[in-house]
Amino acid sequence: MTDTRRRVKVYTLNEDRQWDDRGTGHVSSGYVERLKGTSLLVRAESDGSLLLESKINPNTAYQKQQDTLIVWSEAENYDLALSFQEKAGCDEIWEKICQVQGKDPSVDITQDVVDESEEERFDDMSSPGLELPPCELNRLEDLAELDLENREGLHHLYEIIKGIFLLNRTALFEVMFSEECIMDVIGCLEFDPALSQPRRHREFLTKTARFKEVIPISDPELRQKIHQTYRVQYIQDMVLPTPSVFEENMLSTLHSFIFFNKVEIVGMLQDDEKFLTDLFAQLTDEATDDDKRHELVNFLKEFCAFSQTLQPQNRDAFFKTLSNMGILPALEVILGMDDVQVRGAATDIFSYLVEYNPSMVREFVMQESQQNDDDILLINLIIEHMICDTDPELGGAVQLMGLLRTLVDPENMLATANKTEKTEFLSFFYKHCMHVLSAPLLANTTEEKPSKGIEYLRDDFQTSQLLALILELLTFCVEHHTYHIKNYIINKDILRRVLVLTASQHAFLALCALRFMRRIIGLKDEFYNRYIMRNFLFEPVIKAFLNNGSRYNLMNSAIIEMFEYVRVEDVKSLTAHIVENYWKALEDVNYVQTFKGLKLRYEQQRERQDNPKLDSMRSILRNHRFRRDARTLEDEEEMWFNTDEDDLEDGEAVVPPSDKMKSEEDLMEPISKFMERKKMKDSDDKEVLGKSSLSGRQNPSFKLSFSGSTKTSLSSPPSSASLNPGSPGSPGSPGPGARSSPSTTAVTTKGGLVGLVDYPDDDDDEDEEEEEEDVESKEDPLPPSKKSKLSS
Fold first, then answer.
1. What spans are recorded as compositionally biased (Acidic residues) (predicted)?
2. Residue 103 burial by CB count (10 A; 0-12/13-18/19+): exposed, middle or buried?
3. Measured distance CA(321)–CA(310) in Å, rounded
């Protein structure tokens, strides 16, 4: 049988002046050769590892507190504490400490707080005494008046008691907070010199504040501990003045006193099975009257709040005990009641459970779904309370939405070899709960008249706030529940309903609807894109954009950013849909280039579709492009334009510069005309390539791309393949956005001719990303050379 007398918890005080639980074990004392002295040893009860090895120093001040606690400091800012399960074990170790230090075990502290010289000085101090009236019955009134008149003395008494608190000594607190002294201490603190009238703290504690035993507490020690903790907490929060910056750490022992009291109270209640059984039985009993149930719920709420002071492993045991007692079924019963205050307290208790262990809550609701209807499921009760919140600011609904978000967050769901909590819970949620969550959205966006389509029925502030909360949660689901939410949105036509809200008079709701659609588009999922195009769901967005007019506000920026994303990410299907269906409405928007850029993207796509050979040509040439820094390219081009022809060196190619700015018509001119002009230059190209001595200056942006590792010869004649307009790299085979030039430089390699093309600055971003990937994937890449600038 384990010796429970020696069972202890080891605590250390951290930098925040909070006690950290270092583990539970069994303490012993004995001589340790390495430390050269008698030491305290604590070995963990789980694995026997050493939790504590501390030499009992003769000059260290050890304090015995509350009969089961020994506290001491080993070094500056390093405090230790042993909390014993039984008083007998604490007394045994205390005797050993006192024996080593040569002290009487009856003391509560082994070192004197005040030295002898100070005591002698206090004895020598003399002051004129106060003359009191004779202690007779007929003079009692005079005695009382004397006390009342001596306000200055009461103010001094306040300062003395406050100074004792700042001494930060547990031994003093043990005496001051005892049942006999605590009310006198509070009385002394009523006479603050800074106040014109004394505070009536004792009157409040004795007459106003009432201790209610919702369930009778049979243990007198527990009852006394609860009384003491409440009063000390009152002193800390209400009686003592707010500590200054210099005094904050001077009350650390007071914080520790309250902390250990709360730990003890929670532990004693947790171990009392009869108490907890009676508590939950009365909570769920229909015969319990409303006032009694309100008190029971408030007690349970305070009980859970106390548990926040526990260390993680102790909190784990605490919530497991509550779970075994049936706290979740009890909360389900309480949340179904009509009393708003009771439901509010139950919601707070539920939040403690969700924040601590959401998996426990998810497991419970999935199990109860096998036995109960959807209407009475715990999670659906939470959703209904969120929807039916009567607070004009929806404070409770915001809290409940946060709890639901935690429950449906895949990041805190567990995954094991046999089952995945994410798959099981999300399947359950979308089958049993999602229709309850989306009910207000569907109810307020109905199609009353087919001619008018779907309309937003109630546009009042509270309804709009509620729908904004629901949209926030649905947007979270879009980001994290790809499969389940996609099926739900498409099958229930949710996005169409949501976009009706863009016409709301409340800007925050319209922006929530836009944010919902923006998250969907951001996934770049073609299932979503086809759904949007099939139902023409950009129409309400563009309508909201046009109705917003020229106002520069969040609505304007959010809509433009959505279309800009489609353009930058080159979402081809949506680009074509927008231009083909809504271009006339958007073509006059000139203060941003977003919509003209979309049109340009669309025309480039059409160009590729009409000329598949050109598209394949681009893909081949893309593999040989090298991405250059735009600033470097501009600098080199500036140097080229500033150079005279007389300064050109021999052996360099002459390539005329191209115009920097081209009109939209030039960029989109027909490919046939382009190829005809290129053909006209074939003869000039042959002459340039046939020369053995090529004079001119090489364009700074000239780039050589090789398909092999052999050297390039600029003087070798072109092969017949290089003159074929349809072959890659030939003068008649332009790349995207290529411009015609009076002369073209060709490069030959051992394996054949590779063409050189410089793409315009407005090339697709996606193409540039692909070219980088292609360059990086080369097994034996050659260093990029300069590429020629083709000009018209």
1. 642-652, 759-777
2. middle
3. 14
Residue 44 scores a pLDDT above 60? yes
d(CA 92, CA 86): 10
> Who contacts 681 (Cβ-Cβ below 8 Å, separation ≥6)?
731, 740, 741, 742, 743, 744
- The residue behind tokens 């976009």 is 499
Contact (CB, 8 A) for 235 and 227: no
CA atoms within 13 A on the CB side of 750: 4
Per-residue pLDDT tens digits for 287-312 = 888 888 888 888 899 888 888 878 88
pLDDT tens, residue by residue, 225-260: 989 999 999 988 888 877 665 566 677 888 888 888
The H-or-E segment that residue 258 falls in is helix 252-271
Distance CA 581, CA 535 (A): 12
Q: How far is CA 396 from CA 194, 333, 421, 474, 477, in A?
A: 40, 19, 28, 19, 21
CA–CA dist 339, 295 (Å, integer): 12
Terminal Cα distance for the chain, rounded: 98
What would the DSSP string read from start to end of 324-386? HHTHHHHHHHHHTSS-HHHHHHHHHHHHHHHHH-HHHHHHHHHHHTTTS-GGG-HHHHHHHHH
* Maximum C-alpha span of the chain: 137
Q: What is the mean pLDDT of residues 644-659?
A: 42
Burial (Cβ within 10 Å: 0-12, 13-18, ≥19) of residue 674: middle
Lowest-pLDDT range of 61-65, 353-357, 721-725: 721-725
Written as six digits, the tokens of 569 are 């990410």
- Look at residues 480, 392, 407, 482 and name the one whose alpha carbon lies nearest to residue 437: 407
Tokens for 566? Answer: 């489609």
What confidence tier does 608 reach under pLDDT thresholds 50, 70, 90? confident
Sign of CA dihedral 363, 365, 366, 372: positive
**CA 329 → CA 110, 334, 365, 400, distances in Å?**
52, 9, 10, 18
> 337 Cβ partners below 8 Å, 6+ apart?
293, 343
Place of tokens 């007998």: 88
Q: Residue 730: pLDDT band by 50, 70, 90 thresholds?
A: very low
CA–CA separation, 229 and 216 (whole Å):
18
Query: Kindly report the CA angle at 434 between 428 and 439, in degrees rounded to 5?
Result: 155
What is the reported pTM? Answer: 0.58
The string of DSSP codes covering 269-335 is HHH-HHHHHHHHHHHH-TTS-HHHHHHHHHHHHHHHHHHTTS-HHHHHHHHHHHHHHTHHHHHHHHH
Q: What token pair was written down for 263?
A: 């730990």
Could you tell me if 347 and 404 are in contact, meaning their C-beta atoms sit under 8 angstroms apart? no
In tens, the pLDDT along 685-701 reads: 444 444 333 333 333 33
pLDDT digits (tens, 9 = 90+) for 501-558: 999 999 999 999 999 999 999 999 999 999 999 999 999 999 999 999 888 999 999 9
Q: Shortest CA distance to 232 belongs to which of 212, 213, 258?
A: 258
Whole-angstrom Cα distance, residue 678 to residue 792? 10
CA-based radius of gyration for the chain: 41
* DSSP-assigned letters across all residues of 108-121: SBSS-SS-HHHHHH
Report how far residue 490's alpha carbon sits from residue 520's, in angstroms, rounded to the nearest whole number: 11
Cα–Cα distance measured from residue 456 to residue 468, given in angstroms and rounded to the nearest whole number? 13
CB under 8 A, 24+ apart: contacts of 481-486 = 481/408, 481/410, 481/426, 481/430, 482/523, 482/525, 484/426, 484/427, 484/429, 484/430, 485/430, 486/525, 486/527, 486/528
Cα–Cα distance measured from residue 187 to residue 731, given in angstroms and rounded to the nearest whole number: 102
Q: Which of 241, 226, 258 is nearest to 17 (CA)?
A: 258
Tell me the two tokens of residue 55: 């030499």
SS3 of residue 464 by DSSP: helix
